[in-house]
Amino acid sequence: QDQWELPLTWISGTLYAPRLLISRAGRSVTIKCYYETTSANRHGRKYWCKESTNRHSCQTIISTNDFIHKDYEGRVSMHDSPQSGILQVTMAQLVKTDSSNYRCGIGNKNAYGFYAGVNLTIWEGKVCVLCLLVCVLVCVYWFCAWGFLG
């Protein structure tokens, strides 16, 4: 299997996505974000952005208004299905530096509106199944203990 993900979680009752995705360097990962099919959501700008270290800003990687960041051209794509409320983002040719916190969101500004946070972790080389299990258990614990606090 090339991709592992933690179960989906609701964010603000409007948008949800996997909290954690794990993949290997050189592979592709597909993120599915689900949103309520209100008129505002169907017609709103959708985006995928990479959070800054301090999480106060988020650099757009791709959005539904035909923007693709130059560093990701040729290896990121987005497909929005407004009638079904599914936004799908695919990142290809993954590298270790793609490991980060991302946001899948709806709105004119990345810092406002609704978004779901996704942690993308890229492994190099062979995946240690025990390491993966420990990582998932820690993330589940973190979500159960702190996930609803912010």
From TrEMBL:
Gene3D superfamilies: Immunoglobulins
Keyword Membrane in annotation: yes
GO cellular component: plasma membrane
Main location: membrane
Family matches, as SMART domains: IG
Cited CDD domains: IgV_pIgR_like
Localization (cell): Membrane
Domain of life: Eukaryota
GO molecular function: transmembrane signaling receptor activity
Keywords: Membrane, Transmembrane, Transmembrane helix
Listed InterPro entries: CD300_family_receptors, Ig-like_dom, Ig-like_dom_sf, Ig-like_fold, Ig_sub, Ig_V-set
PROSITE patterns in the cross-refs: IG_LIKE
Sequence ranges assigned to domain Ig-like in this UniProt record: 7-121
Spans traversing the lipid bilayer: 127-149
Protein name: Ig-like domain-containing protein
